[in-house]
Structure formats: C-alpha cells, structure tokens
Here is the input.
Amino acid sequence: MNADVANYAQECAAQGLRGDYSRCRQDFTVDQDYDAYTADDHRVWRLLVDRQSAQTHRFAHKSYLAGQASVQIGSRIPEFENVGSALSKLTGWSIVPVPGLIPSKPFFEHLAARRFPVTNWLRKMDEIDYVVEPDLFHDFFGHVPILSQPAFADFMQLYGERALEAIELGGDEMITRLYWYTAEYGLIMDDGGLKAFGAGLMSSGSELPYAMSPKAKTMLLDISFLMRTGYEIDKFQRVYFVMPSFEALLEAFQAIDLPDMIARYSNDLPIDPKSL
Here is the structure.
C-alpha cells in the first residue's frame, strides 16, 4: 500500500477496511471522537473487559496487571488523552488514535517517538469473540498496560527506531516477526513459571489459556532464531518464545548486529514453526 494518506485512504476503502481513513492527518492519526461512542459500544467494552480480565488475572505477567491498574481500565471505553497523560508519567509514552491498521513506516515512527497508535473503533456485539482487524479492545487492553513497564517501554521505542533501519535494509519481514513473537505473542518467566504479556494473547479468550497449557510449544528467547521463524495469523501459534525478563529482551535487541543478520538471512525461506 502507498504511504500517501489520500491514496492509502482510497485503498483502504476499496478493501472494505472499517476505519474512516479520510480523516487521517499526515501522520495517520485521527481524533478519538469520544462522544461518538454509543451506549452499546460501552456495553461491548464492559463485556470484553469483564470476560478477559478473568483470564488475564490467571495468566498475565504481574507487570501487565500492574499496568492495567495504572491506566485504570474500567467499565467504559477509555479516553486516550487522559490515559496517555498517566502513562507518560510512568514511562514517557502517549497514545495516538488511528482509524485502524496504518502503513509500517508511520507506525514505526510513532513507536520511535514513544507514541502508541490505538484504533478508535470497537467491534460490535456480534463480533464479540473475534474480529478480523485489530480494534480498540485489542490495541488498548492488549498493548497499553505493558507500556507502563520501563524496560519493555524502552524495547518498544528501540524497536520503532531499528524497524525503520530494517526496512531500509530489506529486512521488513524479519523485523515484523520480532514484533509478532514479542509484543503480540510473548511469554515471560515469572518466579520459576511462565506468564503471558503479548497483546494477541491478552485480548484473546481462547488462545491465552492455550498458550499457557502443556499443549503449547515454547522456546527460550533467541532473537536471531525468532526473527527467522515464520508465523500464521489465523491459527494459534505453533511456538511461543519465552523472555527471561524484559531487561534481557531489551539487552538482546540492543546487542544484535541487525545489518549483518539481515544481509545473511533475509533471502532465506523462513523457518517453518510446524517443524519446531
């Protein structure tokens, strides 16, 4: 897709994407338009939060749960500006509303500036169990609480910076896998056991308990191996990578020679996760 806002808006409309991309600014942000949320929208939000919180209190890492309290996830759709102010005091991050999926380059630029893009629309009641596009619940409930954790917040900013470098080097797919297996589906060691923190797990009522069950395949973090491992977007993950700690994840990413790794592996076929 073209990163030009007007062209991107036309392409999204042609593909039937839900957000109103015609309202995008040059950085692909929009207004949250809080007053446009209906009573039904708040009802859906409350149902999703109540249902998923029962899972996260069992399986989520303590830093995610602390983050939930810090950003005060409650019974009504959050106001991004208010939550962003609270988050900024903790780790310097803010929240910017977007109409849905945005191009990679502006997304990474927002991360590099400690701005997390959150979709401003919420799924409907008949989509309560699954929605194809990431919505407000996935983006906010899944991603925002863990941004209150300082080392992970630093990792996400560094990810944004190095992802821009990776694009220039032809490593788009490799850097995307890092986001997928950490920010979306990451697990972490916790007092000798495993807990989850990735947003794709935090916002999924079915995959979160699966990922924490003996059926799930897990591997200890190896960034080079992880970035060469393919994934499937419409199935439970074949493998989940386990971070020793958020500090270890940040240090490993700081240490990796990204240009060398992309030069060595970017033309290889990805490792099939079914083979692991």
